[in-house]
Specification:
Blueprint: H1 8-11, E1 22-27, H2 31-41, E2 45-53, E3 56-62, E4 68-75, E5 89-94, H3 97-109, E6 114-115, E7 126-130, E8 136-141
Parallel strand pairs: 1-4, 5-8
Antiparallel strand pairs: 2-3, 3-4, 6-7, 7-8
């Protein structure tokens, strides 16, 4: 499968672009397990949390100082937590193979083994692991670079 070319102006925000951060949020009925997976398994840091906000509890995780973080929320009445497909992915690019191997081993020891990727593109270049809700995390061997034009 060929990737479509990415123009440089879409590869990074243009001057004056008003967005300073990106938060990816999703509900879960397994907040404690999901936070454990991302914090202890993947090594993300808890950046903040809240409880009892209009019936919601939540935790934000990410890399300190990075402009992108994840938010997981749980509603007191319950919420849909299962992934809609096996191809909903969070891709983490890990340039050091040894670091990726440590994360993969840690997650396996926690009961999260490698799973078969839905899209064959990821085979042979990454490891896919399902989180407690079934959402897939891809640990990519290397860094992403836009395709040359």
């Amino acid at each position: 499968m060929q990737q479509s070319p990415m123009h440089e102006e879409t590869a990074r925000p243009s001057p004056g672009w008003p967005v300073a951060q990106i938060r990816i949020a999703r509900p879960t009925d397994k907040l404690d397990e999901v936070v454990h997976f991302y914090r202890e398994g993947l090594g993300l840091k808890v950046l903040g949390s809240f409880t009892g906000h209009a019936g919601y509890d939540g935790v934000m995780l990410g890399l300190p100082g990075a402009g992108v973080h994840l938010e997981f929320t749980r509603h007191a009445q319950g919420s849909p937590g299962q992934a809609p497909s096996r191809d909903n992915l969070l891709v983490l690019y890990i340039p050091e193979r040894e670091a990726a191997a440590r994360i993969i081993a840690r997650l396996a020891a926690m009961g999260y083994p490698e799973v078969e990727p839905e899209n064959p593109y990821w085979k042979g270049r990454s490891t896919t692991i399902a989180d407690p809700d079934g959402w897939r995390v891809v640990l990519f061997d290397g860094v992403w670079a836009p395709s040359p034009e």
